[in-house]
Amino acid sequence: MPKIVFIQHTGESQTVEARPGQSVMEAATANMVRGIIGECGGSCSCATCHVYVDRDWFERLPAADTMELGMLEGAVEPGPLSRLSCQIKVTEDLDGLVARIPAGQA
User: Fold this and answer.
1) How buried is residue 99: exposed, middle or buried, by Cβ count under 10 Å (0-12/13-18/19+)?
2) How large is the average pLDDT for residues 44-56?
3) Helix or strand or coil: residue 100?
4) CA distances for 20 relative to 23, 27, 50, 55, 93, angstroms
5) Calpha distance 79→18 (Å, rounded)
């Protein structure tokens, strides 16, 4: 199973196993990753699963669609590497993905 690494703003990391086909948000909430809430259940309507994807991984992901980009405008501390983890589907190719959680979400 692919592993996803979540890093808190403090530097603390948590590695979780994810099933291909589930979202990064689903993997985080199933493993109680602090700062990933997913209030909307993954329907891209709340931005409580916002993460910064490490640059090496960011460029490997499919581009965010207009709906996700709109939601990111209202996210806590959005930046150029921001994504909603509910919109990132886990594949075997994402083994080792690193997602950082904004300080304001911790």
Assistant:
1) buried
2) 96
3) strand
4) 8, 10, 20, 22, 9
5) 25
* Contact call for residues 86 and 44 (beta carbons, < 8 A): yes
The DSSP letter of residue 4 is: E
Domain 3-105 has CATH 3.10.180.10: no
pTM of this prediction exceeds 0.85: yes
Looking at residue 106, its pLDDT comes to 76
**H or E element at residue 3:** strand 3-7
Domain boundaries, the chain: 3-105
Q: Would you state the pLDDT for residue 54?
A: 97
Q: φ and ψ at 65, to 5 degrees? A: -85, 175
- Give pLDDT tens digits for 85-99: 999 999 999 999 999
